[in-house]
Amino acid sequence: MNKRKETITRAMAELLEIPKDLVLDLPKITIIGTNELYLENHKGIIGHSGECLRISLTRGYMEIDGENLEIKALMPDDMTITGEIRAVKFLD
After folding, report:
1. What does CATH list as the number for 25-91?
2. DSSP assignment, residue 90?
3. pLDDT digits (tens, 9 = 90+) for 46-87
């Protein structure tokens, strides 16, 4: 049932030309070079170390791998991460 609701919501967003990240609460990521990442629509931090950062999303979580990873700004819906970013993975 949840899958069907998502399909209908996605179709309505396309029909009305509304950004999907707003309607479906999807994460929006902006990466600047390999040293800065800006993330919108997160649900909180699961774990953090200098080499790995796990962030909860609406569906699953994402993992950022790198060196000297640091959370520079943290707001309820967005965050800025700096450091040497090597990989970004999405996991269920």
Report:
1. 2.60.40.2000
2. E
3. 999 989 999 999 889 999 999 999 999 999 989 999 999 999
